């Protein structure tokens, strides 16, 4: 790493939603110049679009990316990991750092299948704005310097937070899925406001957007915690208290049910990934 940027080559296999978010965030942050990024994708049109938007960005095959990259983000679907790893296996030397961005593929599985250094980084759409968290789980082969350099890289686009393996799903529910969950709830609030009152959708959306931005800033600067903010707004006998009573009654179990549902899906994904890696004949020994 060097101040104001990096000298290593960052590779991305897969330029879907999260891959593109990471690529564009690193470029926008100024940490990684386009010429230090190499990308491959099943559909070449996506890589051509990225290259047109970011002069100097390099595109190639999966093998080209794996060969050139010092740090390699694997941004494919989880059940494509085995196929991609088999394809690039001969490029994954012990000095390279392989990063999974999916919750269902663990670092121990990847360490058992490759000789390189491994970590998992779960990004969030909030990283598009160079903010929000990125979840990090380190493999056993990273030294102190490796860990520090990865955290420095991620700090350019996020607040990297190290998590334990057993907390992967719930942490991802909050950080990665959370923006969609709460966007859904906010839209429900807007839709109900339009349905129940004379306010227009445009007006309600603008008010909601400004409220959310302001709320985020209050929490960011540490002026309030969630409980103290509620206490400050909710005066005895006031309208806010009536609304909170309704929310408490109507949403009492909604997040328990949400977490149970996401974990059931996660358990299925974990089993599918285990089956994918069950055949060890091509694995690293």
UniProtKB/TrEMBL annotation:
Protein name per its UniProtKB record: Pyrroline-5-carboxylate reductase
Gene name of this polypeptide: proC
Biological process annotations from GO: L-proline biosynthetic process
Domain Pyrroline-5-carboxylate reductase dimerisation: 165-265
Statement: the UniProt record of this protein carries the keyword Membrane: no
Main location: cytoplasm
Binding residues for NADP(+): 13-18
Record's function text: Catalyzes the reduction of 1-pyrroline-5-carboxylate (PCA) to L-proline.
GO MF annotations, alphabetized: pyrroline-5-carboxylate reductase activity
């Amino acid at each position: 790493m060097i101040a104001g940027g990096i000298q290593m080559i960052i590779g991305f296999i897969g330029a879907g939603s999260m891959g593109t978010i990471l690529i564009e965030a690193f470029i926008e942050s100024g940490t990684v110049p386009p010429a230090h990024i190499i990308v491959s994708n099943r559909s070449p049109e996506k890589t051509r679009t990225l290259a047109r938007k970011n002069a100097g960005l390099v595109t190639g095959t999966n093998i080209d990316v794996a060969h050139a990259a010092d740090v390699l983000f694997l941004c494919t679907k989880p059940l494509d990991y085995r196929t991609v790893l088999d394809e690039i296996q001969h490029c994954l030397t012990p000095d390279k750092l392989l990063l999974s961005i999916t919750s269902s593929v663990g670092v121990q599985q990847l360490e058992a299948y490759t000789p390189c250094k491994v970590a998992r980084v779960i990004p969030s759409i909030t990283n598009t704005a160079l903010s929000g968290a990125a979840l990090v789980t380190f493999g056993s082969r990273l030294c102190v310097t490796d860990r520090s350099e990865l955290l420095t890289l991620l700090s350019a686009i996020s607040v990297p937070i190290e998590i334990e393996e057993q907390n992967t799903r719930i942490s991802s529910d909050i950080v990665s899925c959370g923006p969609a969950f709460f966007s859904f709830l906010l839209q429900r609030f807007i839709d109900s406001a339009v349905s129940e009152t004379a306010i227009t959708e445009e007006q309600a959306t603008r008010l909601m957007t400004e409220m959310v931005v302001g709320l985020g800033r209050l929490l960011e600067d540490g002026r309030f915690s969630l409980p103290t903010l509620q206490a400050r707004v909710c005066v005895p006998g006031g309208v806010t208290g009536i609304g909170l009573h309704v929310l408490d009654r109507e949403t009492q179990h909604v997040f328990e049910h949400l977490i149970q549902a996401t974990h059931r899906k996660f358990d299925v994904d974990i089993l599918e990934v285990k089956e994918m890696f069950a055949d060890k004949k091509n694995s690293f020994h």
